[in-house]
Amino acid sequence: MRHDFGPGKLLAGLVLLTTALLYLGDAATWWHLPWYAVLPLICGGLFLSATVAVVGVGVRRRGRRRAGSADG
Transmembrane segments in this chain: where (predicted)? Predict the structure, then answer.
């Protein structure tokens, strides 16, 4: 059984991984990161990943429709 590629999930994972690395750098005292600095990163990243997911579903749905009309 194959799974569809989910670019929205990939982008959300990358955003959350980046946030974790920023907090790791703050904990290791490599730089100072205020607690509120990550809110725009997380909110913007989740909004962008949701947008990418919606566009990806639309593209897959359109491709299936075209493949179905070519078969018929």
Answer: 37-59
